[in-house]
């Protein structure tokens, strides 16, 4: 199979918060004493923040123990390194959350499953060879989970995965597809990265120069996101920095 793999590293650069922020009790800056990282609304590092992240002593932005690589207007990319000791239950850290969930563009690599999953267009051997990864257990094969037909669904349904009885959540691959379903070829694969989609709970609170889009998980509205109209920049949220011309 002809695979065109593009790998690009993502660095943490995030727009600086405006000093006129409405949500005064949310700390959006994470500092290690030398430099600072800041995250855009609705993210932050204290209790008053709509989406709470963790700021490590080293000044890293984390979700639990996982380092956040990039935050965009709808997604957040998290480092998800290969690990033979990661228990499957860790998946709940990303899925059972009131403000973000795993998108359907992620493929999971698993080990020690009671039923074998082999969903991925990419062969497991190829993944292992390409990335020179260790196999956790030589006597069992690696499994790969990717949503069969995610057309129209932003978020990954874990139902089938949960019934596969996997013990180890080894890693994940963010798969960029051209087209509308998983039968099309992946054009980009970002190994050991996990893409999460985020939202703000409640009724739309977007700037007058922004559009509001509802976010649904399994056909249930969970919240919304704001997008500034063309010609405007900003986070788009009334409670954040809104939109500015430019
Ligand atoms: C974040 O991801 C977007 C979309 O992939 C990309 O365009 C942007 O350059 C990334 N930002 C950083 C800081 O890596
Ligand atoms: C911020 O926190 C202080 C003290 O905890 C509280 O009195 C105040 O109402 C809070 N302000 C907002 C906007 O939540
Ligand atoms: C979320 O976690 C709680 C406690 O850990 C559990 O009771 C609940 O069923 C979980 N919900 C989902 C959707 O996984
Ligand atoms: C390795 O896989 C085999 C077959 O699935 C299983 O019986 C064994 O318990 C596994 N070993 C470890 C250390 O998990
Ligand atoms: C995706 O599906 C829509 C309608 O279902 C179609 O109009 C569009 O061309 C498709 N896009 C691709 C890239 O196949
Ligand atoms: C978002 O959902 C709310 C509540 O269901 C609904 O009233 C509103 O029209 C929806 N907005 C958009 C842009 O779809």
SS element count, helices: 3
The biggest beta sheet is recorded as: 6 strands, antiparallel
Tally of extended strands?
18
Order of helices and strands: EEEEEEEEHEEHEHEEEEEEE
Termini separation comes to 45 Å
> Per DSSP, what share of the residues sits in E-state strands of 2 or more residues?
35-45%
Shape: globular
Gyration radius, rounded: 19 Å
For the biggest β-sheet, the strand order reads: 5-6-7-8-14-9
Average pLDDT, rounded to a whole number, is 82
Structural class: mainly beta
Q: Overview of this structure, please?
A:
- With 246 residues, the chain is mainly beta.
- It folds into three domains: 24-63, no CATH class; 71-198, no CATH class; 201-246, Laminin (Ribbon).
- Helix content is 7%, strand content 35%.
- It has helices at residues 92-95, 124-131, 159-162; strands at residues 29-31, 36-38, 43-44, 51-52, 54-55, 61-63, 66-71, 75-79, 100-102, 106-113, 143-145, 166-177, 186-191, 193-198, 210-217, 220-228, 232-234, 243-245.
- The strands form six sheets. It has a six-stranded antiparallel β-sheet. Strands 11-10-12-13 form a four-stranded antiparallel β-sheet, with no helix packed on it. A two-stranded antiparallel ribbon has the order 1-2.
- A hairpin with a 5-residue loop joins strand 5 (54-55) and strand 6 (61-63).
- The longest helix has 8 residues, at 124-131.
- The radius of gyration is 19 Å and the shape is globular.
- The model is unreliable at 1-23 (pLDDT under 50).
- This is Wall-associated receptor kinase, galacturonan-binding domain-containing protein.
- It comes from Helianthus annuus.
